[in-house]
Amino acid sequence: MAAFIFDASGIVKRYLTEIRSGWVQGLTDPDAAHEIFLTRLTRIEIVAAITRRGRGGGPVPAAAAPALLAQFRHDAAHQYTILEIAPAVLADSERLAETYGLRAYDAVQLAAAGDLHRDRSTHGLSRLTLISADQELNAAAMAESIDVDDPTAHP
Question: Which of 7, 43, 50, 52 could pair covalently with 132 via S-S, beta carbons 3.0-4.6 A apart?
Fold first, then answer.
């Protein structure tokens, strides 16, 4: 069993049809039995993405958005481990934003991934992999010694 932390650009592909959605759907299939982590901020970003794309003739029909939101919320409650953002993670986010020039939420995502990675290492658990299609975030994660996989790199 592998452990993955998804940012919004990665997990959104499970709910909205985007490039490499199939790969993400396979990775997050409950039968794969992987550990899936999201931050509380990622939950907010996914709700916003689905809602915004369902308004004004976006790629999600308005009538489909409630079902997609319900599916995401079900998965979040039953399949994902949601990470709360502790003050120490926020403090590290400032360092990461300054060091790598990351956007605020990306710095928080990376700080949370780093915190979880260190905790897993301390307890002898499998390595954590960040799943993200954001190139700047991925480069910073690799510089912080966090494994990265970009969904857009898969067929």
Answer: 7
User: Measuring CA to CA, how many Å separate 138 from each of 10, 71, 121?
Assistant: 11, 27, 20
**Alpha helices per DSSP H over 56-134:** 65-78, 87-100, 104-122
The two three-digit tokens of residue 13, written as one number: 């592909």
Q: What is the CA radius of gyration of the chain?
A: 15
The dihedrals phi and psi of 66, each to the nearest 5 degrees, come to -60, -40
Helix axis angle for 104-122 and 40-53, nearest 10°, is 140
Instruction: List, for residues 5-36, the tens digit of each pLDDT value.
Output: 999 999 999 999 887 889 999 999 999 999 99
Tell me how far apart the alpha carbons of residues 85 and 112 are, in angstroms, rounded to a whole number: 7
Count CB atoms within 10 A of the CB of residue 73. 13
Structure-token pair, residue 34:
């992987």
Closest CA to 80 of 128, 37, 130, 127: 37
State pTM to two decimals. 0.94
* Partners of 130 in the β-ladder: 5, 148
